[in-house]
Amino acid sequence: MTSATIARTVWRDTRILLPFVVLIAAWWALKVGLDVSDQLLVSPPRVWDGFVYLVTHGILAEYASTSLRIIGISALISFAIGVPLGFAVGTNRYASRALEGTLRFLQGISGIAWLPLAILWFGFTHTTTLVIVIYTLIVPIVFNTMTGVRAIPENYVLALRSLGAGPVRIVTDVYLPGALPSIVVGMRLGMGYGWRALIAAEMLVRQGGLGDLIFGARSFNQIDRIMVGMVVIGVLYIVVDRLLVQPIETLTLARWGVLRR
Amino acid sequence: MQADKITVTGFRHFFKTEGGDVQATGSIDIAIRPGEFVTLVGPSGCGKTTLLKAIAGFITPTEGTILCDGKPVRGPGRDRGVVFQELAILPWRTVRRNIGHGLEIARVPKAERDRAVARLIDLMGLAGFEDRYPHELSGGMRQRVAVARTWAADPEIILMDEPFAAVDAMTRLTLQEELGRLCATTRKTVFFITHSVEEAVFLADRVLVMTKRPGTIKAVLDVPRHDAGGRDWDSFTSDPEMRAIAEQVMHLVHAERVA
């Protein structure tokens, strides 16, 4: 391998990080150049120190695992409820027409807007957070599953019934494979919305999680902790999205997306 | 005398719309004998697809009765295979798995299923395409798969709704000849809908001509068959008897042109 190809490879693998480097440089320059007080903004090395402290004392692992656990549980529950619900609504012409407006209406009311009611009903507990995140996740899953099912040509179903297929066969052989790409898209959208709703809910509920970490740090002006928390929130989302959700989507779309045409 | 395979008596159908009921067909009576190939030709919107859907069991007729083998039709069933114009084979199944789908549903053992599928792949000229997906095939090849899938399930009655209408003209001629040969070797009762006069006469033992909406059966013409192995277009176009029947059907259809 020549040095030029090595350089190209390194450049290819690192260029997505370049904007972050620029951002950190700008932040540092702002801090030093304008001599911003530590009450408003701390320097990158201070945030790094804060990160090391939170990691070595196990604090970050504790808060981050709470958030990841809740998003994981929410994703499983939303999938288990949302997909069958989407099928039920999507296969019934009257139900899907009736519910389409309702689903759009609910899409408009963000999970955060349910927080006051949820806190009154379930108190400052993990239940409240779970309910908010599941609600946020489930709406796009139901909606996309429903849309996917409705986009399946009626002839697929009719042809199979003439081949002697019963309702179970119709679901496993037509509806499920036909709607799969849409279901995956709904899941990915839901994870994005759900993660944001989770952080917001944790800030109010204050029962652990990264939202709790950064909101609590505010009370003691621990700007370094706030910024560490924000970076971790962003990084964890990328990790979950790129390493878990996107590969599933790429796999199904690469295969089924072409196949459904 | 042999009992009729399909009997339609006093069939009339209305569609419910917001502006009230719309009459799709007039009163229709049809009797199709076992092993007969009957084509139904008529102008767009005359209700021919409605009639086919009722025989298939996809819709319940507003009036009248439909009997298959003397039993009233209640919903679709594997005794009546259907070939659609398009969008019927599943895009996520290979050619082989699409053709074997009916047998898979009927829980036919794999070895037996494979034999039936191999035979149809051979008959329909699909050899070499067994593991392709529908999107990798031309429109004509896709319709071959749809026909093969229906034949593989081995129903006694086959209903075909303009199966070659979306295929280019050259391929259509080949598919029509292939269908003729397939029917000559398997002897199914076929009810075939088309708006092409040539196709109707070429394939049929008997041609039914429909009036414009609300359609009724306007004429019934027998098409004599001197060719046991299935027809081909060369001898069809040079046969004066066939030309005469086609011309007769053409006149009947033209009188029903929709402005």
Task: Name a few traits of the molecule.
heterodimer, A: 261 residues, mainly alpha, 0% strand, B: 259 residues, six-stranded mixed sheet, four-stranded antiparallel sheet, 9 helices, 36% helix
Architecture overview:
The complex is a heterodimer of chains A (261) and B (259). With 261 residues, chain A is mainly alpha-helical. Chain A is 84% helix and 0% strand. Chain A has helices at 3-14, 18-33, 44-56, 59-91, 93-108, 115-122, 126-150, 154-162, 167-205, 210-219, 223-259. In chain A, helix 4 runs parallel beside helix 7 (126-150), helix 5 packs across helix 7 (126-150) and helix 9 (167-205) runs parallel beside helix 10. Chain A is globular and about 75 Å long. The model of chain A has no long low-confidence stretch (mean pLDDT 89). Chain B has 259 residues and is α/β, with parallel strands linked by helices. Chain B has helices at 48-56, 95-99, 101-105, 110-123, 139-152, 169-186, 197-203, 233-238, 240-254; strands spanning 6-17, 20-32, 37-41, 63-68, 71-72, 80-83, 157-161, 189-194, 206-210, 217-222. Chain B has a six-stranded mixed β-sheet, with helices on both faces. Chain B has a four-stranded antiparallel β-sheet with strand order 2-1-4-5, covered by helices on one side. In chain B, a hairpin with a 6-residue loop joins strand 9 (206-210) and strand 10 (217-222). The radius of gyration of chain B is 18 Å and the shape is globular. Chains A and B meet through helix 8, helix 9 and helix 11 of A and strand 6, helix 3 and helix 5 of B.
- Fraction of residues in helix of chain A: over 70%
Sheet/helix structural class of chain B: alpha/beta
Count every beta strand of chain B, where a strand is a DSSP E run of 2 or more residues: 10
- Tell me the number of helical segments of chain A per DSSP (H or I, 4 or more residues long): 11
The end-to-end distance of chain A, rounded to whole angstroms, is 42 Å
In whole angstroms, the N-to-C terminal distance of chain B is 43 Å
Nearest-integer average pLDDT of chain A: 89
Integer-rounded radius of gyration of chain B: 18 Å
Q: Give the helix proportion of chain B (percent range).
A: 25-40%
Based on Cα principal axes, name the global outline of chain A: globular
H-E string of chain A: HHHHHHHHHHH
Strand content of chain A: under 5%
Instruction: Count the DSSP helices of chain B.
Output: 9
Regarding quaternary structure, what we see is heterodimer
